[in-house]
Amino acid sequence: MKVLSVVGARPQFVKLGPVAQALARTGDIEHVIVHTGQHYDAAMSDVFFEDLKIPAPDVHLGVGSGSHGVQTGAMLTGLDPVLEEHRPDWVLVYGDTNSTLAAAVAAVKMHLPVAHLEAGLRSFNRRMPEEHNRVLTDHASDILLAPTQVAMDHLATEGLAQRSVLVGDVMTDVCLLVRDGVADTPIELPDSMDAHAPYLLATIHRPDNTDTPQRLRAIVEAMRDLSTPVLLLAHPRLVAKAAAHGIELTGGNLHQTAPFAYPQMVRAVMGAAGVVTDSGGLQKEAFLLDTPCTTIRPETEWVETLEGGWNILDNDLTQLRDVAVRERPTGDKGTPYGDGHAADTVASVLREHAR
Ligand code: UD1
């Protein structure tokens, strides 16, 4: 059996890590990796392949940045000959980026079976490009590999129950594995911060938070004013928009640095007094690593993180000052994201359902 994975953006490399290892463990599944090139900076791409021991991509489309139409269209153009050459038994697409949608559309047009990993997540916020990508990819795919029961329920509501399988969350696989490996390593903070004092870890990159100057300025000022130092890991989109709007990403209690590699990130979350973010993956990583999270968005796809107060939504920034650093909730939070073996289940399900 041949599986062809299409990835392109940072969170997809994290998901690909455990899946590539699980497919390799089967011993008889051929795995072709196609990188669209949506993310191209070394810190956004290469370091994930190195740290997560992912084989180098077999094909790199080198698409780069652009508007949604330009970027997605370039991926479609690039994918056609690659899919034609390989004619895999499964085209495996990951998450909710433009790379996900492009690969699903390219494959379905060529009558190639498509499997969507991390299917069924919904924010019900149609302003998010990820929401369009998820809905369209789920409806185009032949098998929907859902991370949670809530995702399964969304798929059932949309008439997709027969194509859906609950496999668990592959990001949990890699997060728990890396956690165990970095627990005894030092936390790497910039020189401007005291690594022995409490700190908050922050990321902001959603277009709704970065693309208008008023909104971005409000978020930056709210973080500057916090009483605990904030380490902002600045995504290239944030850096580009802040520069365009003339907004400094430092000042007050705010410290800026480049994005972390995955193990460094996991270690920094483990050591933080709290996480402030609009990232989906980081909300879940904070939950898995027992660090309270405050999410600067009106809603979350990972609703399980809200249970018990591990994650708090604060889109209007009215609670941040009071909740960014808070006691760790007590009580059993269960294992809503699976037991850390989702990727092996993905490999089995793909084999069982191959045509
Ligand atoms: C993309 C995904 C988003 C995901 C995020 C994770 C879409 C629509 N969005 O958002 O779902 O949460 O990745 O990081 O697919 N840039 C660089 N270097 C890079 C990559 C990007 O400088 O390696 C800059 C460019 O200015 C680019 C901007 O970041 O225009 C945005 O990149 P893009 O890939 O369009 O979307 P992200 O915001 O990264």
TrEMBL record:
One of its GO terms (molecular function) is isomerase activity. Pfam families: Epimerase_2 (PF02350). Keywords: Isomerase. Gene3D superfamilies: Glycogen Phosphorylase B. Residues 22-350 form the UDP-N-acetylglucosamine 2-epimerase domain. Belongs to the UDP-N-acetylglucosamine 2-epimerase family. PANTHER family: UDP-N-ACETYLGLUCOSAMINE 2-EPIMERASE. This is UDP-N-acetylglucosamine 2-epimerase. It comes from Kineosphaera limosa NBRC 100340. The lineage of its organism: Bacteria, Bacillati, Actinomycetota, Actinomycetes, Micrococcales.
